Amino acid sequence: MSxxxxxxxxxxxxxxxxxxxxxxxxxxxxxxxxxxxxxxxxAAAEKSTSPTGASSKRRESERxxxxxxxxxxxxxxxxxxxxxxxxxxSSLQGKLANAERSEADAAERKRKRDQQQKDRRxxxxxxxxSRRIVQAExxxxxxxxxxxxxxxxxxxxxxxxxxxxxxLRVGRxxxxxxxxxxxALHRDLVELDVRPAATTSDLLDGITKxxxxxxxxxxxxxxxxxxxERDEDAKHQGVIVSARAFASxxxxxxxxxxxxxxxSCNSAAQIDQLVDxxxxxxxxxxxxxxxGDAIRYAAQFYAAVANGQSIQSSHFSAQAALELGGLEDAExxxxxxxxxxxxxxxxxxxxxxxx
Length: 355
Prior knowledge:
Layout: H1 3-47, H2 51-138, E1 155-161, H3 170-182, E2 190-195, H4 200-210, E3 214-221, E4 225-228, E5 239-242, H5 243-251, E6 259-264, H6 268-277, E7 281-285, H7 291-306, H8 311-324, E8 333-337
Parallel strand pairs: 1-2, 1-3, 3-6, 6-7
Antiparallel strand pairs: 3-4, 4-5, 7-8
């Protein structure tokens, strides 16, 4: 429930409490008045010299006492209501505070994502301006780097999944990716090396032996760390690897990958360095991403790649899948690329007849 809804409930509950307190006060005043009247009637009965008059005053006193007792009961009932409303009001205040903190945190995360996107646009604009200046000074046109067209070999995707505590569904993600590729138009042109419970040895072995065109990681990360697993059967803390060490490992091959996809929380902070030092394209998440959203993004991205779409179109397609699912994390996946490549024309899988 939103903070606005809690505020509305709190306002209504406060009004109910105040109304109950008002009613309790009114009945308490009535009780006081009636008891005072009863006391006067008793005094008059005691002073009366007429038996009939004294009897009448005593009956009047009893009536006032009964009315006072009734008013007292009503006052107590309304006081109990006011106390109950006060407890509910206190509970709502706590819920409102939690909702406000949650919304403030969400707003701050959105602000950070927006700022990251803004910074990325500024950096891209600055890089574009620098290129234009160089072009003008050199008086020569600068062509976009022409990446090698896919060779008559299958696109090799190394899929590493690590969740040493068992808190992420990396197995489900790998299953969804495999299913997406196997149902794609050019499924025969894609080869997967899937490594669940991935260790750092799996990373190095996969890079040097499989020679992937794409390196995909799913698991835990932050701005400058990635977590792999140990070669252990029981749940454990995992192995923390710095972003620099990860980049060095991915780069340690004669045929570096074209794309690195970090399908893990807060990994977008690493992709610029990956683009500078490792691969011409990289994708990361700008903030914490829901496990299910990450799975859906990955499955649709590789489905589009295996259908012959460009890297950019595949990225947009995967973001659209999140939006169509009514999910909130569509803006988190972030694509970065080197200044001299173009993701809109880079296709990783082409049908055999066009090779």
